[in-house]
Design a protein that fits this description.
137 residues; 3 helices; T4SS_pilin; transmembrane helix; transmembrane; membrane
Length: 137
């Protein structure tokens, strides 16, 4: 039963990867500089206003802030993916608890915590993306 669940997760993951690599939705600025995004993650230079050509002359720190924002957004998206995986693992644990009240309560708590983490990651990534677009990219 667990093998079947893992197989279904792998099929969904490969389908998602195929959709993303085919241009099904990704970065807003990656295509103008050549190359798309990987799983929808932004490029490190996305919010710098250029395609990796950084100009720090005259004390201009905008490219540095753009890089920092892009890295924070990447980390928040990874946290969101981890939260989704944790929700799936906790869901399987909930199903396999078979009515045991302690295991059911523990699994339910894990699901709620992962949903809270997912919400924080999504809201954080949205805010960082908004700020990055307003800043320079």
């Amino acid at each position: 039963m667990i093998d079947l669940a893992i197989a279904k997760i792998m099929v969904l993951a490969t389908t998602f990867a195929r959709i993303e690599s085919g241009g099904g939705g990704g970065s807003s600025g990656g295509d103008s500089c050549g190359g798309g995004s990987f799983f929808g993650f932004p490029h490190w230079w996305q919010y710098t206003g250029s395609c990796g050509d950084l100009d720090f002359s005259g004390g201009n720190l905008t490219p540095l802030w753009g890089i920092i924002l892009a890295l924070v957004e990447i980390l928040l998206r990874v946290a969101g993916i981890v939260a989704v995986v944790y929700i799936m693992i906790a869901g399987i644990s909930y199903i396999l608890s078979r009515g045991n009240t302690e295991k059911t309560a523990a699994s339910r708590t894990k699901i709620i915590n992962a949903l809270i983490g997912l919400a924080i990651a999504v809201i954080g990534a949205s805010l960082v993306s908004f700020i990055g677009r307003q800043l320079g990219g």
